[in-house]
Amino acid sequence: MNIPGGENTKNRHCLSWSDFPEGFTPFSLNPTGARLETKELGPGVYALLSSVPNVDNTGFVVGDRSVLVIDAHINLAMAHQIQERIREVTDKPIRYLVNSNYHGDHTFGNCGFPEETLVIQHRRTAELVPYFREEMDFMLPCVGNEPAIFDGVELRSPDIVFDDYLRLDLGGVEVELHYFGPANTPGDTITYVPGAKAAWTGNMTGGNLIIALESDASAYLSTIARFAQSLEVETLIPAHNPPSSAALLGGYLLYLSQVTSAVRKAVGENWTLGEAMEKIPLDMAQPYAPPPDHPRIGFFRDLHAYNVQKTYQSFL
Fold it and tell me: Cα–Cα 20 to 30 A to 192, which of 47, 62, 219, 283?
């Protein structure tokens, strides 16, 4: 097994594919042919759900005075499509645009929104978006190495930066931005609409399995626990999977606690990283693991092996 992290990472700021185990399948984020379908979650509260699996979902909230958008998507075409869906519902000005994290599929579309739209990011996200070229290099394999998808994309930095909490009044509708700690990325932001009990979670939640992309299972566990304890949520809108209920959080807590315990035991018994990745299989995460005949079981095993890797490294 090729153990990642052998290259000099001193001058890197964002993820590199060299951080991943050999053979890891790049995420599938090519938006070509994707249509965002509008789903109303409550009065003035809308999810925009991608017709292509794994390609980003977004959303928007309409108040009496203005509109807030959750995530700008991966390129200009998708950013413009978001605005087209909004204009099918309202002509109110798009006042705010929240980025769930710094990755390009959430931020590259920022430059496609009007200048008067205020871009909002968590402080950790704002610290990473300037490394635009590094992130472009990371995103390219995720779109089939088709650079034309990013034509016209330029860095657009935030206008508003927050730390733990920010409340926004759109006129009769309040939206809350919460930071509960690192999970998938250092600056994961939850966009919560109390009136609809709906939360956009970016990459923090997903489907069957989550990935500690830039944290570890123990840190992720603490973040999910704070989220679950702090907000009354009925609908989770993740970036890359269909909406779900908050019951999914219980499965994440179970899985992350199992990974943390298994890796802690492995480190205590002086297993190497390679041994831990081979001997802590996905099926140990019962009853949460997908069935062996699941059509994406290979990808889930990749995600699990990565979670084991990141958690092992956090104990050293």
Answer: 219
* pLDDT (0 to 100) of residue 9: 42
**Position 92: which residue type?**
K
Write the CA distances from 26 to 29, 45, 187, integer angstroms. 9, 32, 22
How many angstroms separate the CA atoms of 212 and 79, rounded?
Answer: 27
d(CA 15, CA 213): 9
Name the average pLDDT for the chain. Answer: 93
Alpha-carbon span 206 to 193, nearest angstrom: 19
- Where would I find the H helices in 88-131? 104-107, 123-128
Indicate the SS3 state at residue 166.
strand
Per DSSP, the three-state class of 121 is: strand
Q: How many CB atoms lie within 10 A of CB 232?
A: 9
Cβ 212 vs Cβ 306: under 8 Å = yes
Cβ pair 141, 152 in contact under 8 A: no
Backbone angles phi, psi at 60, to 5 degrees: -155, 155
Predicted structure pTM score: 0.94
CA 157 to chain centre: 19
